[in-house]
Design goal:
The protein is mainly beta. It is built from four helices and 15 strands. It has a 15-stranded mixed β-sheet that branches.
Length: about 270
């Protein structure tokens, strides 16, 4: 009888947490230590490992938090601390067609494309730009009113400015801003961003990052991530493009002015 009561209580709590018509479009694969979600028509809730997420849900990480969302098409989003997104649009048909779009209002994320982004661009909209990701993995940062996108691997990454100007790249490590293509990212700054997004595995595991896009996003103490992304080779950078060349628009973490950050500077560190 006690076991049945526990099951009933858990089911009732889930029913109250989400609107009756909500359908899960993904699952929380990692939440370290805090992710919070606000589904449409419902209150804010804590998103633990295994929690479902729905369309139009607002998801935010805390100042020390980070997390991963695994969608039903195997797209994976990894969120840095102080990051807020809204899951605007997700349609996944049985034949693999559909659409995916989300908003990044502040912070940094890594996108690892699944089935939907192979057929057409998935979009990440920020307050100042729209990012189109086609069959690829990428980093998107919005901070201080500026948007920066870094292509990691795959087919193509594009950035469209409010003016309608559009710039694209398929070069690993290529960086796009509102001013267009800016060359390849400084490896030190890339390492800073990846450390910010992934953090340190609590269990110290090495996990399997096969096809996941960068480094080791799937340590043993976290849930599964997409295996459909493209591998990222950290050795692709040219020696003639250094951090000194890009300090004005994409500084490394150790030269970021926290009080007056230039474009591309993400100040929401752990």
């Amino acid at each position: 009888m006690q076991f049945k009561t526990i099951l009933f209580s858990a089911a009732a709590a889930m029913a109250l947490a989400l609107p009756a018509t909500a359908q899960n479009i993904g699952t929380i694969a990692s939440s370290e230590p805090t992710l919070r979600g606000t589904p449409p028509g419902a209150g804010t809730r804590t998103l633990d490992l295994g929690s479902g997420v729905v369309q139009d849900e607002r998801i935010a990480s805390s100042a020390q938090g980070r997390g991963q969302i695994l969608f039903v098409d195997e797209t994976t989003l990894s969120l840095a601390p102080n990051t807020t997104i809204v899951l605007d649009r997700f349609v996944f048909n049985p034949d693999g067609s559909g659409q995916m779009g989300l908003r990044l209002t502040e912070g940094a994320l890594r996108f690892i494309g699944g089935t939907l982004s192979r057929g057409q661009e998935a979009t990440v909209a920020t307050p100042t730009a729209t990012i189109g990701i086609r069959g690829s993995s990428a980093l998107v940062i919005h901070s201080g009113g500026n948007t920066t996108a870094i292509f990691l691997a795959g087919e193509r990454l594009c950035l469209t400015a409010p003016s309608g100007q559009r710039a694209c790249t398929s070069r690993q490590g290529g960086v796009l801003t509102l001013e267009g293509y800016q060359g390849r990212v400084d490896p030190d700054y890339l390492a800073f961003l990846l450390d910010l997004i992934d953090g340190t595995p609590r269990g110290g595991g090495t996990g399997g990052g096969l096809g996941s896009g960068v480094g080791n996003p799937n340590p043993s103490d976290r849930g599964p991530v997409s295996t459909g992304g493209e591998e990222f080779d950290p050795e692709i950078f040219d020696d003639d493009f250094t951090g000194d060349d890009i300090q004005e628009w994409l500084p490394r973490g150790d030269v970021c002015d926290q009080d007056d950050p230039p474009p591309g500077c993400f100040t929401g560190g752990p």
